[in-house]
Amino acid sequence: MYGGKLVSKGDQIFVFASENEGGFGLIAKGVVSRAETTPKRPDLERQTPRVSITVNRTGGAKRRLGRSELNAFNQWDDGRPETELNFKLYRQATNKIVGLSSGATQFLTGFF
Fold first, then answer.
1. What is the reported pLDDT for 94?
2. For the stretch 80-109, what's the b/e string if a residue is b when 16 or more beta carbons lie within 10 angstroms of its beta carbon?
3. Which residue has the higher pLDDT, 91 or 110?
4. Using CA atoms, how far apart are residues 2 and 6, in angstroms rounded to an integer?
5. Which residues, in sequence order, are CB contacts of 46 under 8 Å at separation 6+?
6. How would you classify the pairing of strands 12-17 and 51-60?
7. Whether the Cβ atoms of residue 55 and residue 64 lie closer than 8 Å to each other
């Protein structure tokens, strides 16, 4: 979803702990050390692409950034990095890997 299936070894990644499962949002950053596409099942007509990854952690978040901080950014076409994160991470309550713009990446880097 949102470019996540394109993740590959060497990519920078930001880790959000699922608030639906008791987490607090942004917790760490790291580098992908392994990315493996899960094969599609032939018995399913429609299947969401799945990727299994291993991440080497390179830092912990210094400030909180989660659903409550991003909730106000809901004008989907305003071009703000906060809005991009709110849309991609919190519009659907599912765990996911997403691709981010350079603006959103720069914004998240400021939390470390």
1. 83
2. ebbbbbbbbbbeeeeeebbebeeebeebbe
3. 110
4. 9
5. none
6. unpaired
7. no
